[in-house]
Amino acid sequence: MSGKDYSALAHDIVDKVGGPDNVVSLYHCVTRLRFRLRDGSKARRDELKHTRGVLSLVEGNGQFQVVIGSEVENVYDAVQAEYRFPSPTEDGDGAVDRAGADGGEERKPNIVIRLFNTLSTIFNPVIPALAGAGMLKAVLVILTTYDLMSADGSTYKILAAAGNSVFYFLPLFLAVGSARTFKCNPFISLAIVGALMEPNFTGLMKNTGDVVDFLGIPTVLMGYSGTVIPAILSIWIYSHLERLLRRFVPKSLEIFLSSMIALFVMVPLSAIVIGPLGVYLGNGMGEIVNFLSAKSGLLTGALIGGGWTFLVMVGIHWGIVPIMVNNLATRGYDVIRPMIAAATFASAGAALGAFFRLKDKEEKSLALSALFPALLGGITEPIVYGISVKYKRPLIAQVIGGAIAGGFMGAFQTKAIVYVFPALTTLPAFFGDTFAVYCIGIAMSFVITAVLTYMLGLGTQDADAGIGDAAASATPAVPVAQPETVIEASGVDLAPCVAGRVVPLDSVADPVFAGKAMGDGVAIEPTEGQLLAPADGEVKVVFPTGHAIGMVCGGVEILMHIGIDTVNMQGEGFTPLVKPGDHVTVGQPLVDFDLGLIRDRGYATTTMMVVTNAAESGPVRTVIDASGTADADTEISATATTNVKEA
């Protein structure tokens, strides 16, 4: 995106998700707006996907997610400045999905998705503090390791306090996030969790697992600093207790009685049951991952490095954060983060490979601009949706490169010492005895994916063209049809309808044309914005939006369609030069269209020319030159005898 005013994009997005009345709640993560909609059928998905500034849509996970990229916070602020939508913590139930993919039926996603949604809502506000504190801790490790700062000095201790505070008091941060998510009093929530870290309580414990007595009930003591699950479980249970107290405690006594009862019940309950259970549960999840990593780090790393991108695509990757944070709190290191780094740098490699493959200057610029946020900030969604998913083959390369590098780092038990987003700027977070392995691993991921992306190509002739004249001439865009597809010589010869490069019809990104449901023919990636008559004949149909023309030429019915999904442009950029009933000659201009505007609106410019009545006459024979260029010698020959079909 360019410019500083996001109000127009904000208004456009809200309008295309069904208007403000269709929005139940909204919040954002690092790269996407996460809507809950009342009626999913009201969202204009095709229009939204092609909105400038929107990278992609992700549905499911209980949400309607609009992927923006690194500008998401600016867009979110612009939306909220005008509409002030509630967050999931304010609308009644952050885990409910009222926007079914195929309609307005209100339903809840499965329990796993709801759990991941809840964890995402709790952790998202804490992530910046975790990442910043983590980097500060990593820098201090380097400074003290190389004797650039004394660990006994006051400067170090002050900075160490800044770095350690988020991790030591993490349960308090999570208490606030949980209170917002579960809609209960945040200050009482802080008091409940804070009691587990108060000196009177911590002073009872000499060693983890010590047992003390509370009203005759044995209480196992645990250290709760840096833990994740106990705070979340405690506040979830407290939220139900608070709702129960509201029903029975008189309003006149509520100000002190509700909070007193809550503290009297929840603090002992947390100390006796919830806290130890949460510690064991958190440790158990970490132990499972660590066990798998220890048994087969190669396989675990390959699965995480190759599969992480898909978790990001459906937006449930935040559900893994508690395991990583718990590993850091209990072990002092985490083995999952380096495996994830393999996927991050694989995305960056896909962007670099695509940059060298792409021909269009604007698309090359997009690839390059998406590369740096990934390398420097660990933000990969612009690459995933703008390149990998769009062109498909880079996604394959990304999975392969990430799996190889992830397996490599997993095999060597590569460690992260603090929580950060993997990037070049966060290298200190991986400092230690496996730092060299980490550097080799991310370099492997980046290089392997970049090379594979370049070798595999992007899957579209428009993107792959222009790599070099030798390469273009060595590989025909469309092979000459085999002898058995040649029809009678009495057919009509059709010249190309636009100047450009011929591509196979079955390769275009439109299933109707690619499946030849409209008929057989060719597709051309245009280099000039003018549609021409392919033969002498009569214009039968001029679509109101100007993006398509139907003709009859000597009994052959021809449909020419400029671009894919360009009907959504509502005629903008298209100027028809003929009308139904006009008789035209070969090469006569039919439509002027703005190639640049079509690309700016996010649409493919691929132009299809098909014979709609070829089914009655036999297959269409395609004749092209070795380079696949649609010049004066390029033609398709066909015979047909029926009326024009309007599509």
UniProtKB/TrEMBL annotation:
<keyword id="KW-0808">Transferase</keyword>
<dbReference type="InterPro" id="IPR003352">
    <property type="entry name" value="PTS_EIIC"/>
</dbReference>
<feature type="transmembrane region" description="Helical">
    <location>
        <begin position="298"/>
        <end position="323"/>
    </location>
</feature>
<keyword id="KW-0418">Kinase</keyword>
<keyword id="KW-0472">Membrane</keyword>
<dbReference type="InterPro" id="IPR018113">
    <property type="entry name" value="PTrfase_EIIB_Cys"/>
</dbReference>
<feature type="transmembrane region" description="Helical">
    <location>
        <begin position="399"/>
        <end position="423"/>
    </location>
</feature>
<dbReference type="Pfam" id="PF00358">
    <property type="entry name" value="PTS_EIIA_1"/>
</dbReference>
<feature type="transmembrane region" description="Helical">
    <location>
        <begin position="335"/>
        <end position="356"/>
    </location>
</feature>
<dbReference type="Pfam" id="PF00367">
    <property type="entry name" value="PTS_EIIB"/>
</dbReference>
<keyword id="KW-0598">Phosphotransferase system</keyword>
<dbReference type="InterPro" id="IPR011055">
    <property type="entry name" value="Dup_hybrid_motif"/>
</dbReference>
<feature type="transmembrane region" description="Helical">
    <location>
        <begin position="368"/>
        <end position="387"/>
    </location>
</feature>
<dbReference type="InterPro" id="IPR050558">
    <property type="entry name" value="PTS_Sugar-Specific_Components"/>
</dbReference>
<feature type="transmembrane region" description="Helical">
    <location>
        <begin position="253"/>
        <end position="278"/>
    </location>
</feature>
<protein>
    <submittedName>
        <fullName>PTS glucose transporter subunit IIA</fullName>
    </submittedName>
</protein>
<keyword id="KW-1003">Cell membrane</keyword>
<dbReference type="InterPro" id="IPR036878">
    <property type="entry name" value="Glu_permease_IIB"/>
</dbReference>
<keyword id="KW-0813">Transport</keyword>
<feature type="transmembrane region" description="Helical">
    <location>
        <begin position="435"/>
        <end position="456"/>
    </location>
</feature>
<feature type="transmembrane region" description="Helical">
    <location>
        <begin position="158"/>
        <end position="177"/>
    </location>
</feature>
<feature type="domain" description="PTS EIIB type-1">
    <location>
        <begin position="7"/>
        <end position="89"/>
    </location>
</feature>
<dbReference type="Pfam" id="PF02378">
    <property type="entry name" value="PTS_EIIC"/>
</dbReference>
<keyword id="KW-0812">Transmembrane</keyword>
<feature type="domain" description="PTS EIIC type-1">
    <location>
        <begin position="117"/>
        <end position="472"/>
    </location>
</feature>
<keyword id="KW-1133">Transmembrane helix</keyword>
<feature type="transmembrane region" description="Helical">
    <location>
        <begin position="221"/>
        <end position="241"/>
    </location>
</feature>
<feature type="active site" description="Phosphocysteine intermediate; for EIIB activity">
    <location>
        <position position="29"/>
    </location>
</feature>
<dbReference type="InterPro" id="IPR013013">
    <property type="entry name" value="PTS_EIIC_1"/>
</dbReference>
<keyword id="KW-0762">Sugar transport</keyword>
<dbReference type="InterPro" id="IPR011297">
    <property type="entry name" value="PTS_IIABC_b_glu"/>
</dbReference>
<feature type="transmembrane region" description="Helical">
    <location>
        <begin position="184"/>
        <end position="201"/>
    </location>
</feature>
<dbReference type="InterPro" id="IPR001996">
    <property type="entry name" value="PTS_IIB_1"/>
</dbReference>
<feature type="transmembrane region" description="Helical">
    <location>
        <begin position="122"/>
        <end position="146"/>
    </location>
</feature>
<dbReference type="InterPro" id="IPR001127">
    <property type="entry name" value="PTS_EIIA_1_perm"/>
</dbReference>
<feature type="domain" description="PTS EIIA type-1">
    <location>
        <begin position="510"/>
        <end position="613"/>
    </location>
</feature>
